[in-house]
Amino acid sequence: MFKKILIANRGEIACRVIKTARKMGIRSVAVYSDADRGALHVKMADEAIHIGPSPAAQSYIVIDKIMAAVKASGAEAVHPGYGFLSENMNFAAALEAAGVVFIGPPSGAIEAMGDKITSKKLAMAAGVSTVPGHMGLIDDAEHAVKIAGEIGYPVMIKASAGGGGKGMRIAWNDAEAREGFQSSKNEAAASFGDDRIFIEKFVTQPRHIEIQVLGDKHGNIVYLHERECSIQRRNQKVIEEAPSPFLDEATRKAMGEQACALARAVGYTSAGTVEFIVDGARKFYFLEMNTRLQVEHPVTELITGVDLVEQMIRVAYGEKLPFAQSDLKINGWAMESRLYAEDPYRNFLPSIGRLSRYRPPVEGTTPRGGIVRNDTGVFEGGEISMFYDPMIAKLCTWGPTRADAIEEMRLALDTFEVEGIGHNLPFVGAVMEHPRFQSGNITTAFIAEEYPEGFQGATLDADTLARVAASAAAMNRVAEIRRTRISGTMDNHERRVGDDWVVTLQGVEHIVKIAADPAGSTVTLDDGRSLRVTSDWTPGQTLASLMVDAEPLVMKVGKISGGFRLRLRGADLKVHVRTPRQAELAKLMLEKVPPDTSKFLLCPMPGLIAKIMVAVGDEVQEGQALATVEAMKMENILKAERRGVVKSVSATAGTSLKVDEVIMEFE
Question: pLDDT digit string (tens) for 137-149?
Answer without folding.
Answer: 888 999 999 999 9
